[in-house]
Amino acid sequence: MGTKVLDKQTSDKVSFIAYIIPAFADAYKMNIQQAYFFLKKYGGLDFLMQHWWPLHTDNAIWAVHDIYTICHQNGGPR
Q1: Interval 9-58: pLDDT, tens
Q2: pTM of this prediction?
Q3: I want to staple 45 with a disulfide (CB 3.0 to 4.6 A). Which of 22, 39, 68, 70 is the partner?
Q4: Are the C-beta atoms of residues 41 and 76 closer than 8 Å to each other?
Q5: What phi and psi values does residue 2 have, to the nearest 5 degrees?
């Protein structure tokens, strides 16, 4: 069996998502599983998957805030 190697962009995307979900959890006093399900339920995960590139160039605090804003606009609690 051969091994598959992720291209750089996919690797960068996975690394950023693996970083930002725990950062979101810390910012909003959740554990990582709660943060994941919150993001999934309120559209933050879809937003993150689609817009990870510009989000990763911003300060993590602002990226987390932007993701939270999307969740709130999609019915997430304040």
Answers
A1: 999 999 999 999 999 999 999 999 999 999 999 999 999 999 999 999 99
A2: 0.88
A3: 39
A4: yes
A5: -90, 160
Contact criterion met (CB below 8 Å) for 64 and 24: yes
Which residue ranges make up each domain of the chain?
Answer: 9-73
End-to-end C-alpha distance for the chain, whole angstroms: 49
Measure the CA–CA gap between 32 and 24, rounded to whole angstroms: 8
Instruction: Give residue for tokens 């998957």.
Output: 49
- Reported residue count of the chain is 78
The band of 2, judged by pLDDT with boundaries at 50, 70 and 90, is low
Is residue 22 a contact partner of residue 32, using CB atoms and an 8 Å limit? yes
Return the residue matching tokens 């304040």.
Answer: 78
